[in-house]
Amino acid sequence: MLGSPGAGKGTQAQNIVNKFNLNQISTGDLLRNEIKNKTNIGREIEKIISKGDLATDEIVDRLLKKVVISANIRNNIIFDGYPRNINQAENLELILNSDNQSINYILFLKVPRDIIEKRILERITCEICNKSYNEFIDKKEIANHKCGSKYLIKRKDDNNEAVINRYDEYMKKTKLVLDYYSSRNNFYEIDGSDEIEVISSKIEQILRG
Ligand SMILES: [Zn+2]
Q: How many beta carbons lie within 10 A of that of residue 28, not counting itself?
């Protein structure tokens, strides 16, 4: 599942996970876990993203390989926001080929920049379960959140300038990733500015063939 920061990849991936019983791998979560556990690599990552930059390929590939080939989830994975660039895309092919796995569907959620910006700035995320809400639209869900609404916070990297940096950097690098995949017959571009439910049902249709 490809799409810029704030395109709704996490939400859509979660829906697919529930409906098709898959394992969601988000490099963001892999990276955040390292930060939370205060590992050496976590401290390195924290420095990089506090500047609005993205973690290096070497860090991401190292964290990813371990997970992708693990016996309990292999062959049953959705990647949320990965690969972000050509190096990562080629590396993913190597990891999958070496383990007799392959990509069945490539989904690209396309959303204009102004909509992305608004969505990210209005997003709050649970520190415990990682669920995200829109602070204005999801008032009822926020009040009833199972972990308690006090754990719903704006992430540290969700400030205006970092958002714009991340969007621009993503679009620049992902252009090449899209070129890399778009000629394949399992590549699908989806209008990510639609309502969440509309997007979900489009994706489900694709995955059910
Ligand atoms: Zn929660």
A: 20
pLDDT tens readout for residues 116-175: 788 778 889 999 998 889 898 899 999 999 999 999 998 876 566 777 788 888 888 888
Structural domains in the chain?
Answer: 9-112+158-207 (3.40.50.300)
Instruction: Please give the backbone phi and psi of residue 24, each rounded to the nearest 5 degrees, phi first.
Output: -90, 125
Distance 146 CA to ligand 1 centre (A): 6
Q: What is the pLDDT of residue 92?
A: 93
Give me Rg for the CA atoms of the chain. Answer: 17
Q: Closest Cα partner for 106 from 20, 29, 171, 184?
A: 184
Distance 31 CA to ligand 1 centre (A): 19
Question: What residues form DSSP beta bridges with 125?
Answer: 132, 153
